[in-house]
Amino acid sequence: MKIQALAHDEVFSSLLSSPRGLDDGDVARRLAEYGPNEIRQLHVRSMLSRLTAHFTHFLALLLWFAAGLCFLSEYLHPGEGLLRLGVAILAIILINALFSFIQEYRTEKAIEELRKLLPFRIAVLRNGVETEVDAGEIVPGDLVLLREGDKVPADGRVVLSNRLTVNNAPLTGESDSRLLSDAPWEGDVAESHNLVFAGTLVVGGGGQVVVYATGMATEFGKIAHITGGVVQEVSPLQVEILRVTRIVAAIAVACGACFFVMGELFGRGFWNNFLFAIGIIIALVPEGLLPTVTLSLAMASRRMARRNALVKSLNAVEALGSVDMICTDKTGTLTQNLMTVKSLWSPDDGAMACTVALFCNNATPSSDGVRGDPTETALYRYAAERVRLDAERLDEAPFDADRKRMATVNRIDGRLLVLVKGAAETVLPLCGRIPREGGIVALDCALTTELEGRHRAMAGQGLRMMALAYRELDQLPSQEIPEQGLVFAGFMGLEDPPRPEVASALRQCRSAGIRVIMITGDAGPTAAAIAREIGLLEGEPVIIQGKECATMPDSQLRRELKQDNLIFARMSPQNKIHVVSLLMEEGHRVAVTGDGVNDASALKKAHVGVAMGLSGTSVAREAADIVLLDDNFASIVHAIEEGRTVFQNIRNFITYIFASNIPELIPYIAYILFGIPLPLTIMQILAVDLGTDMFPALALGSESPPPDIMRRPPRPKAERLLTGGVLTRAYLFLGLLEALACMGGYFYVMQGGGWEWPQTLAPSSTLYLRATTACLAGIIATQVANVFTCRSPHLSIVTLGFLSNRLLLVGIALELALALLIIYTPGGNAIFGCAPLGPDVWLLLLPFALLLLGADEVRKLVHKRLSGSASVGRDSAVG
Ligand code: ATP
């Protein structure tokens, strides 16, 4: 049976359905039989192969190699201590892999959770009544009602097409749109003009389809079967982290080699030197960086979702943080999309205006009021109270954002009428007549000017304007609906109050150095009035109309784009893309909002495409990077705040982790240069890098937005995560202060125990064990202070509050607990070569920790003074 070749009644009978749709019993039975309408990912990589990947990446391989060398050396020269190191390296590989695996798993869970927040719902006819259901509940035989902007939920045969146009790009990759018909077709499935496929998009018109395949039986399901589901994007930040890790690994290897050569020159013995070289490499390589960064991106996207911005890829989290320009539409984003008709102006009694408003309208009455687009439902409610007529609709040219009007052909009271409603700019030029003193007269220039004046006055009050017109026909048009020579029937002005949160969100944008430009399809005066109300406009507006925008030379438009108080009105989606492209060419990082089918290209083009979750079409949502669950402009600003924060947090924990590399390195240098007993052993380095440092670093990644984050200018586009400033602060400032503490602790114990230079000590002597433990304790004590300084590159800890990040306190508690285990238990002592310390050592280390905290506070103060209030926080060098 070829479903495409059947007549309508055969389609219904072959799928045991009817033009009234299925009934509830059918649906339940079929759902049990065919299962939910879902694409299962068959080839999801098995847990085992994913776990294996964590043992075989670049750094892991490096570590395997090091471990292998240790074992080989142990075999060739037993008793040099290399066996223990080899085992320790294996432990590192294991801990790292498990840790990364758990983080990857948590990241995936977080993303999966986010996906569930945006249900995919679709209109169906069941029991003869239109209802909206989850796409997952669609079963074969269901009668789906498709409208412009919908995503097709399952494969189906078209039984009614009202210029139903689909784009099969998501399935076939070809981007041409296809006009579908409901007539039978003899060709094969791929060529047919009467089938729709799951995952494709309705880009125009509407229609009804009977579902014949769901879930894995759909064409999309079959492909998913072959390709094994979705490929995850890698964000530039992740790529950069990988780059940083590799560079640092290369530096580490180079350092290791240097120390080896230096050791040889100073005659310290081959195996000793070899051991140290490996120690240095392990100390410097930031093993856990990439999974930690990925996890903190995922956590940020979860926080964004809590603030109503659903991020579709981790990529967007970071792109959001650098946005310096938002192009926003007005209706629904800046305003509440709660429309009511506030005024009607008509040249006669208004009856015809109401007739047009009622019947040239796709809103439908439903059990819970009126269903449909907010503009249309408002018109419907208003008009339905004033005219009581029946009408039969014979044809429709649906509203679209380019034409900015809608037309229908209706039979009303025996008269055949064309009804047109839309933007005055597109409807008035079609009007040739107007009612006057009981008759209908030609619409001359003077009358047109008068109408335009009325339009301006009403729009100037912030009303969204609708011009209404009609004409009578003798016979049904065979082709296009004739829209010329209309009789003007009136203007309706709709009120749509601004969202209360928008004004403060705009103030935040201003202080954060983010420019906001309104790009709306609405009229200039309406847009200007709303812009003034929400504080987007101060002074006289510069309004550029879509038409001007299309004809203006690019050079002039670029100049205009620099003006304050700029508003783009009556813009078509094409105009919008043009403006967005120019802004991007000018070097801006642009976020663009959109909700319609035609907005998809602008959403894709911009750095961050923002679609509306409530009012937007599926097409826009598919194209966007983030979806606003509440359609609210303020949510974009919250998302930017989180985006900026995550970048800063990642930098903060990198500073924290890198700082402890210096006190790990300096003991080696001192050992080689001055011949003192090695102050810190490799096992102790590992205790810091893979033990005590881990938890506070994670907590730094989850820091909530600092109070000044939206008072700083956007991050320059080219700015890297690791700048010279970040490295200088970590290595040459914080790191050196830490090294001071640990060497201080070491010498204090050594001297107290009667050691004198150049005396050597047995590795098992209590004095040596205690001295190295003091060195380790020095790192731990100063890292506790450091975690507070790393919470912000600019803000004083007094401003942030010592207790404001709970997770950080937990992290520190875990760090200290681990330190106690290492220093004060026999097991910890045995593994890490430590010995218990007396309180005097801690008392000695305390001032070093306070010194680090104080010194960084002074640095922050100096920075504040230097940068002054004019450029608050502008310091890309350090933060
Ligand atoms: P924004 O882009 O800020 O969301 P908008 O939603 O007002 O603006 P459009 O939806 O493109 O932009 O509407 C532009 C104009 O088209 C409106 O001012 C109105 O005059 C007209 N219009 C809007 N909806 C309809 C409709 N359903 N039927 C006919 N005309 C409409």
Automatic annotation (TrEMBL):
Provide the membrane topology annotation. Answer: Multi-pass membrane protein
Query: What is the protein name given in its UniProt record?
Result: ATPase, P-type (Transporting), HAD superfamily, subfamily IC
Task: List the record's Gene Ontology CC terms alphabetically.
Answer: plasma membrane
- Transmembrane region positions? 55-76, 82-102, 244-262, 274-298, 653-674, 680-700, 721-747, 767-788, 800-824, 830-855
Matching SMART domains:
Cation_ATPase_N (SM00831)
Q: Which family does it belong to?
A: Belongs to the cation transport ATPase (P-type) (TC 3.A.3) family. Type IIA subfamily.
Where in the cell is the protein located? Cell membrane
Query: Which key words tag this protein in UniProt?
Result: ATP-binding, Cell membrane, Membrane, Nucleotide-binding, Translocase, Transmembrane, Transmembrane helix
Keyword presence, Metal-binding: no
Keyword Coiled coil among UniProt keywords: no
